[in-house]
Amino acid sequence: MPATAHKTILLVDDDPEIIDSMRTVLEGKGYRVLVARDGNAGLTVAEREEPDLIILDMMMPRKSGFLVLEKLRTRPEGLIPTIMITGNEGSRHRAYAEFLGVKDYIRKPFAMEKLLRSVDAILQGTESTGAAKTKSKG
């Protein structure tokens, strides 16, 4: 059975094209994919389903990615491993995301291969190999 079997990833983004692209690629690799289209829905799904990984957009309606992270950090079980994706170029945003505990911070637009490398590294427990330290250039 592949290592991806039974691993669940929650995608939280308000852009349907990005959701569809990520979902197609991740499901093609054998991951179970859940979708939330805003921060409030993301929190609800995360708390109910307890995914293995969250891929979280920073800028969304109803609740930003930062507010979602701040709330998830307070769970007794701790923060679910999270990759933050964003179109924002600010280094302060990246620093705050890292402070909140994200495993990787990827700037949009990004190659799906980059996202997959990060997902695989985090879910296999090897993110310290450098996947979490890479900066996206597209």
Q: TL;DR of this structure?
A:
By secondary structure, this protein is of the alpha/beta class. It has helices at 16-28, 39-49, 65-73, 91-100, 112-123; strands spanning 8-12, 32-36, 53-57, 82-86, 104-107. It is built from five helices and five strands, in the order βαβαβαβαβα.
Could you describe the 3D structure shown?
The chain is of the alpha/beta class and 138 residues long. Helix content is 40%, strand content 17%. The protein has five helices and five strands. A five-stranded parallel sheet has the order 2-1-3-4-5, with helices on both faces. Helix 1 (16-28) links the parallel strand 1 and strand 2 (32-36). Helix 2 runs parallel beside helix 3. It is globular and about 30 Å long. The protein starts with 7 loop residues before the first strand and ends in a 15-residue tail after the last helix. Residues 128-138 have low confidence and may be disordered.
